[in-house]
Design brief:
The longest helix has 19 residues, at about 310-330. It is built from seven helices and 30 strands. The protein has helices at about 15-25, 165-175, 215-225, 240-250, 270-275, 310-330, 380-385, and strands spanning about 10, 30-35, 50, 60, 65-70, 80-85, 105, 120, 125-130, 130-135, 145, 155-160, 180-185, 190-195, 200, 210, 230-235, 255-260, 280, 285, 285-290, 295-300, 300-305, 340-345, 345-350, 355-365, 365-370, 390-395, 400, 405-410. The strands form nine sheets. A six-stranded mixed β-sheet has the order 8-5-7-6-10-9, with no helix packed on it. A six-stranded mixed β-sheet has the order 17-14-18-23-22-19, sandwiched between helices. The protein is about 20% helix and about 30% strand. Helix 1 (about 15-25) runs parallel beside helix 6 and helix 3 packs parallel to helix 6 (about 310-330). The structure holds adenosine monophosphate (AMP) and magnesium ion (MG). The site of adenosine monophosphate has 20 residues, from helix 3.
Length: about 400
């Protein structure tokens, strides 16, 4: 085997992640396209959206009750004359020009508060008799009234570019009157499986062969992260076959390879990437699963050489490839956040590597509990598919007792 023209560099998990984040922060996303508002879910906003008017546009009542002058309620109970009823959708002509001292207006949630009134008393604290209402609770000026422009001023940016459109962002877009949105084009992500033992899904494998599952798990992960997967099939563990497919993959926005990055005699991925003039930022991370993981750039395109073991492929995509792909998709980069749950059964492990092991999260509400899924190593996709999270075990822990807080990565 030809010697690698670069020194291998194995980083701690945190350092490796930071290296990717630094690159992600400098990535320029793809061009823009326009999509219908309903079709924009999961897409990434390409242009800032500004408020087309004040939000709210009028002083909005937050409760059903009575619009009053707070100063009229200094002595309780107080009785006021009801001079109007104001429902949601009432235009200025539908309401009195002024609520004077000693007066009130019945008002509904979402209705504009009439001039003169500066607070709303909830209907629960009132009793009506004819046109007289008796109020048993006082209010401070401004209570139960949302001031004009308090949520956003006209012209103010309400969604910055880089926002991934979810159900709350789409509500904002709808509120400011956008029925279509400028979003970033989805990045094209090439997926290249490697290995002489790997065969396609529709092929009857010999006893010595393994069906290609990595291209499919990666395609699903790429899509979930906002990319367009482009599956390039399987390259043989042979220099020319690999080199051709790598060159093809580097024409996409990002190239993901699986397999062939360990230290074996036929692990030729790094060698062939080097042959394409690749620059490597790291060639391993102190994690399990996934220790052999290469990140670099060739022909101006980023690539990840992910380990071939199926669970390693999944974990290393989530930990390292995902933030870079999200940046290519135009998303604002965010820090990786783990949540905490109580450990349900003891964990014993070896120190030295940070581990991300398939786990079962259970419990209810604030009482999340987690335990490791029974699994047979980084090739065990069956138990991984049955799990619902990864338990994150620090590199320096040998034993974690029942009831301790442990970090989990949701999926
Ligand atoms: P490698 O990283 O090439 O040494 O592969 C490690 C392990 O992952 C081997 O047992 C491979 O058979 C398996 N593997 C590699 N590529 C794939 C793939 N595309 N789909 C499923 N298993 C794979
Ligand atoms: Mg291999």
């Amino acid at each position: 085997m030809a010697a690698l023209p670069h020194p291998p560099s194995v980083l701690s998990f945190e350092d490796a992640r930071h290296v990717v984040e630094e690159h992600a922060a400098k990535v320029r996303p793809a061009s823009l396209e326009s999509v219908d508002l309903l079709g924009s879910v999961g897409r990434v906003l390409g242009k800032a959206l500004a408020a087309d008017r004040d939000f709210p546009p009028f002083r909005r009542a937050m409760r059903d009750g009575y619009a009053v002058r707070a100063a009229d309620l200094t002595r309780l109970p107080a009785t006021l004359e009801v001079i109007a009823e104001i429902k949601a959708g009432a235009a200025p002509d539908d309401m009195p020009s002024q609520i004077g001292p000693g007066q009130a207006a019945a008002i509904m949630t979402g209705a504009p508060t009439p001039p003169g009134a500066d607070a709303v008393v909830m209907v629960e604290y009132t009793s009506l008799s004819g046109n007289q209402v008796t109020l048993t609770r006082g209010v401070t000026s401004g209570d139960n009234v949302v001031p004009v422009g308090s949520e956003a001023r006209q012209g103010q940016v309400v969604l910055p570019p880089g926002t991934r459109i979810d159900y709350s962002a789409i509500a904002v877009a709808a509120s400011v009157g956008q029925d279509s949105l400028w979003v970033f084009r989805r990045p094209e992500v090439a997926i290249l499986a490697t290995g002489d033992e790997i065969v396609e899904v529709n092929t009857e494998p010999g006893r010595h062969q393994i069906r290609n599952s990595n291209s499919y798990s990666l395609a699903a992960q790429v899509q979930a992260a906002g990319g367009n997967p482009k599956v390039l099939g399987i390259a043989r563990d042979e220099a020319q076959s690999l080199r051709d497919r790598i060159e093809q993959g580097l024409r996409c926005d990002l190239l993901l390879l699986t397999g062939g990055v360990s230290m074996g005699k036929y692990d030729l991925v790094e060698q062939e990437l080097s042959g394409c003039g690749a620059e490597f930022f790291f060639t391993g991370a102190q994690i399990q699963p996934g220790r052999p993981i290469a990140f670099g750039r060739a022909h101006g395109k980023y690539f990840f050489g992910l380990p071939g073991n199926p669970v390693s492929t999944m974990v290393t995509f989530e930990l390292f490839a995902r933030p870079l792909q999200e940046a290519l998709a135009g998303m604002t980069t965010s820090k990786l956040i783990f949540l905490n749950a109580r450990l349900k059964s003891e964990i014993k492990t070896k120190t030295g590597l940070k581990r991300f092991l398939p786990g079962m999260l259970s419990g209810e509400f604030e009482r999340a509990e987690v335990e490791l899924a029974a699994w047979h190593g980084s090739g065990d996709v069956v138990s991984t598919a049955r799990s619902n999270c990864f338990v994150v075990i620090p590199a320096d822990r040998e034993r974690i007792a029942v009831g301790e807080w442990v970090a989990v990565m949701l999926r």
